[in-house]
Amino acid sequence: MKLDDAAARLEALGNPTRLKIYRTLVRAGAEGMPVGRLQAKLDVAASTLSHHIKSLVIVGLVTQVREGATLVCHANYELMHDLLAYLAEECCADGVRPAAERTCVA
């Protein structure tokens, strides 16, 4: 993953509403979640939700599929794992690994 791509994705997740949307979609699993249910679950205005989903779609963290009249959002799990791997890939490369087991994924 390129630095600029990682930065754009992290910036998108840096907004509390977008992070809440993304975490909800991650929890939803492979079937995703219809926009209407996402709106009701998060109690966000439709226009606000649309704006934030668009930001997540632009950076590739979320995809949308139309199923009849319903628009379903899905977390892009592969990209999520790639971003996490990018953050951890050089953990402790220039130093001693910390004692805490959970500090580094590598």
Helix % is 40-55%
Order of SSEs: HHEHHEEH
**Overall SS class:** alpha+beta
Cα-to-Cα separation, first versus last residue? 16 Å
Number of strands: 3
Query: The biggest beta sheet, please?
Result: 3 strands, antiparallel
Describe this structure in words.
This protein is α+β, with helices and mostly antiparallel strands and 106 residues long. Helices cover 54% and strands 13% of the residues. The protein has helices at 3-13, 16-28, 35-42, 46-58, 77-88, and strands at 33-34, 62-67, 70-75. It has a 3-stranded antiparallel sheet with strand order 1-3-2. A hairpin with a 2-residue loop joins strand 2 (62-67) and strand 3 (70-75). The longest helix is centred in the N-terminal third of the chain and has 13 residues, at 16-28. The chain is elongated, with a radius of gyration of 16 Å. It starts with a helix and ends in an 18-residue tail after the last helix. The mean pLDDT is 92.
Please render the helix and strand layout as text.
Elements: H1 3-13, H2 16-28, E1 33-34, H3 35-42, H4 46-58, E2 62-67, E3 70-75, H5 77-88
Antiparallel strand pairs: 1-3, 2-3
